[in-house]
# Entry
Amino acid sequence: MGPKSVALFATCLVDLFYPQVGEATVRLLRRLGVRVTYPANQTCCGQPLFNNGFHEEAARVARQTIALLEPAECIVVPSGSCACMLKKEYLHLFQDDPEMHQRAAGLGRKTYELSDFLVRVLGREDVGARFTGTATYHPSCHLLRGLGIADAPTRLLQRVQGLTLHELPAAENCCGFGGSFAVKFPEVSNAILQEKIRNIRSSGAEILVANDCGCLMHMGGGIRRTPQPIRTMHLAEILAGDATTDTHR
Amino acid sequence: MTDSRSAFIAKARGAIEDRQLQEALDLATGRFLTLRRNAFRSLPDPEGLRERARAIKQRTIRELDQHLERLATEIQRAGGRIHFAADDRECVDIILRLAKERGVRSVVKSKSMASEEIHLNPALEGAGITVVETDLGEWIIQLAKETPSHIIAPAIHKTARQVAELFSAAVKRQLPPDPEALTAAARQELRQKFFQADMGISGANFAVAETGTIVIVTNEGNGRLVTTLPRIHVAIMGMEKVIPTLTDLMVFLQLLARSATGQKMSVYTSLIRGPRRPGETDGPEEVHLVIMDNGRSRQVGGPLEESLNCLRCGACLNVCPVYKEVGGHTYDSTYPGPIGIILTSFLGHEPKNLGGASTLCGACLEVCPVKIDIPRMLLTLRHEAEQGRELPRGERWSFRAAGLILRSPVLYRLAARLGRIFQRPFLHDGYLDRLPGPGAGWTRFRDLPPVAARPFHARWKELERES
# Structure
C-alpha cells in the first residue's frame, strides 16, 4: 500500500519552532513502514512572501523548493497551509512560465498533507496510536477550505486508543492568524482569536489539536495568556504516541 | 495603502471595544448564516446551480456591450428611457438634471447600493430636494446620519434600543425598543412620503436584456411603492447587473435570497417593464434606467473581473471573521467586507487598497453564490500594493530581506542562530512575551515560542540513525 519512501518537507515553522513535530512525523511514518528522507537545505515554501504580495521573491524560493523536492517519489508536509502553497499557489506563481508551471504541477500532484497521506495514500485510519486524554480538533482554514481536507484528521484521532474527542463549537471558523495579518492587524486578529479560545474552552477538552503550526502558534500563544492553559499539540504528536510514550498518566 | 491601513486599524479598535456593536453584529450575522444554511438545504443541487450562475455571469461580462445594447433597445421599446454614466459624477448629474427639468421637489428611495456608491443623497439635498429613504434599515441610518454598514442590512450595527431612540425623535413620541412597534411607526410615518413624492429612485438587482425588464428584489414592499406611486421612477444600476434572459433570472432568483437572508424567495420580486401604458390605472409616467460604469468596464479581462459577478447578497460579509469583528464602517467605503475590499479597489475616484485586511481564511469563497474567488483577488491586491510601492518602507525591506534569507540555506541557518541569540533578553518562562518593533504586534496579545535550541535540521542526523 502506498509508497515505501517519502521525502519530508518539514516547513520553516516546524524546523525552527516545533522540531518535535518533525520528529513525531518521522517516527509515525516509520512505525507505519514508510522510509523517510529529509532532502537537505530546506528553508520555507515561500508562503509568507507570496501572501504579502512579494511574488518575485516567493517565486525564487519556490523554484528552489521545487528543485529540492521534485526528485522524490512522494512528499509529505505536516502542514495544511504549506501543502496548499506547494499544491495550489505555486501554480499561480508560475502561471506565466509554462516550464515552471509544469514542474510545479508535477510536484503538487505528489505532495500530500500528513493526514491526507495517512488516510488516502496509506489507507490507514488506525495508525496504532495511544494517547490518554481529551482533545478537540481545530481544522485550519487552508487545510479545510484550501485543500478540502475535512474528515481525515478527525478519523485518525477517533482511532487513537485512550483519546476522547470533544466537538469544537464553530470549528470551521478561522483562528485569526492569517500569517502577517496577526502582526499587522493585532487587535482584529486577537478579537477573532478570543472567540476561538472561548469555543475551545467550552469544548471541555484538555488538548487542542491542529495540523498547522502557524495556527497552533497563534492559538497556543493566546491561550497561554489566559488563566487556565490548555495544551496545544500537532496531530503528528498525538498520532506518534504509542505504548512507550503514553506514560504521563 | 499605509494610510488606509492605519485608518482601518484605528476604526477597528473602536469597533472591537463597542459592546453594542459587537452584540448587534454577532446576532445578525449568526442569524443570516443559520438561515442561509437551511435555505440551501432545500435546493436539489446547490453546487450545480452555483456553477450555472457563475457561468452565466462570466459569459455575460465578456459580452457586456452586446447585452447592454439589447437592454437599452428593449427598455426603449417598452417606453422607458436609458442613460449611460461613465462615472459617479455623471450619474449624479443625470439624476439631478432629470429632477430639475421635471420640477421634482421630493424623492422617495428604495434601497440602492449604487446610489450609495455615487453619494446621491447629499447631492439631491444640496439641490434643495427632500430625500426620504423608505427601506427600514436605510431610514434608520438616514435618521442617524450614517452610511450603510452592510450590503443588505444597512443598519446591522444598530440595536433595537438605538433604533427606538432615532424613531422616537423622528415621529416626536416615545417608542419602545420593540421591533413590531417600531416598524408600525415607520410604516405610518413613511406612507405619507410616498404620496407626496414626485420621483422614486430605486436600484436594480438585475436587468433582463431580452425583455428590457428591471428586476427589484425586496422584503418590505417599499420598493413597489417607490416604483409605482411617484410620477417618475429612476432606477440606477452598475453595468454588470445586466443578464441576458428571463431563464437566467430564474437561476439567480433561486440563489440571491437564499444567500442574502436565507429566504427561498424574498417577499417581493418586482419585474418592471416600462412606464404606465395607456388605459392602465397605475404606475409612473416615466421610467428611467441609469447604467453606470464608474470603473467597472476597466476590470473586464483583468484579474479582478470575477468581482463583476457579484450579486450583492452580503453572504461573504456574514462569514468573514474580520467583518464580524470590525463591522462595515471600519472599511470606510460604500461596500464593506471581503467583496467590498475588491470593489473599493477600483470603483469611483478614490480607490484604495485594503487587500491586507483579511486572514485569507477562504470562508467568503465557500459561501459566494457565484463562486467569486475573493481570496485570490485579495492576493492580487497585495501584489499590486507591493508593485506600486504602497507598502511601508520597513515592511518592504523586511520582506526583501526575508526573500534573500529563505533563498539561501546558509543565510537561513545563520538567521536561526542569530534569532536564538537575540531572543534571549525577551525570554520569560520559556516563551517570548514582549518583543520590540513589529514583533510587538504579536506579543501584545500572544506569547511566541522561541527559536528552538536545536532546530529540526540539526536533529536530522540523529533521527536518521534511529531508523
Notes: Residues 19-41 of chain B form the longest helix (23 residues). Chain B has a mean pLDDT of 96. Residues 406-466 of chain B form one domain. The radius of gyration of chain B is 26 Å.
